[in-house]
Write a structure and sequence with these properties.
9% of the residues lie in helices and 46% in strands. It is built from two helices and 17 strands. The strands form six sheets. A six-stranded antiparallel sheet has the order 3-4-5-14-9-12, with no helix packed on it. The longest helix has 10 residues.
């Protein structure tokens, strides 16, 4: 029998106590996802160690649920805001939720039929990500964007298609506001 647990999540930093895993994504690892390659090179040259986001997770042996936090730094590369790689799930029948704790952003979703949806991310909004919809979170604010995610332990990540093709929509800054536009290099 599994024992109940209480995990303390700091809504401003995403730090979880206890946690069972953690990784950092540096900006320099994410060149493929941004349109403006010159702006990307310039930012990496300025600070090669800059962090884009951090994922902390809690995986309980024997449980069906898997959850954690993602903490995204604010920033832009060219006109695009800092964003996650984006992925489909390996298990096409499994969904996920994202519950924003602090900051503001956009959750961009895309079905296999290339239907697109955008869900606002702000404290209090819990987004449901249906099975087989690709998803990418974008920090459009000037503070860290922190959200809790929860899915089945079997869910898995499939990064290939989004890394290769990108998503049909981009989120860019226009006159200080986020704007969703067509991705000119999506085919
Ligand atoms: C999240 C994401 C996390 C990082 O845990 O994996 O926010 O985004 P990328 O994995 O796209 O870099 C999730 O959606 N898990 O399924
Ligand atoms: Zn996911």
């Amino acid at each position: 029998m599994l024992s109940p647990e209480s995990i303390d999540i700091n809504p401003n930093t995403g730090v979880m106590e206890p946690a069972t895993g953690r990784y950092l994504k540096k900006v320099c690892e994410l060149g493929q996802i941004y349109q403006d390659k010159d702006a990307f090179e310039a930012l990496v040259a300025e600070d090669p160690e800059q962090i884009a986001y951090e994922v902390i997770e809690y995986r309980k042996a024997g449980s069906d649920l898997f959850f954690g936090t993602t903490t995204m730094r604010p920033g832009k590369i060219g006109r695009e805001y800092f964003m996650t790689r984006g992925h489909y799930h390996k298990r096409r029948d499994l969904s996920e939720i994202y519950y924003t704790q602090s900051g503001s952003g956009i959750l961009l979703l895309q079905s296999r039929q290339e239907e697109t949806k955008a869900i606002e991310m702000r404290p209090g909004i819990c987004a449901y990500i249906p099975p087989d919809w690709a998803h990418r979170s974008i920090n459009t604010g000037s503070d860290d964007l922190v959200f809790v995610w929860c899915c089945d332990v079997e869910t898995g990540h499939d990064y290939g298609e989004i890394l290769d093709r990108g998503m049909a929509k981009l989120v860019v800054e226009q006159l200080g506001e986020p704007l969703i536009v067509d991705n000119p290099s999506f085919n």
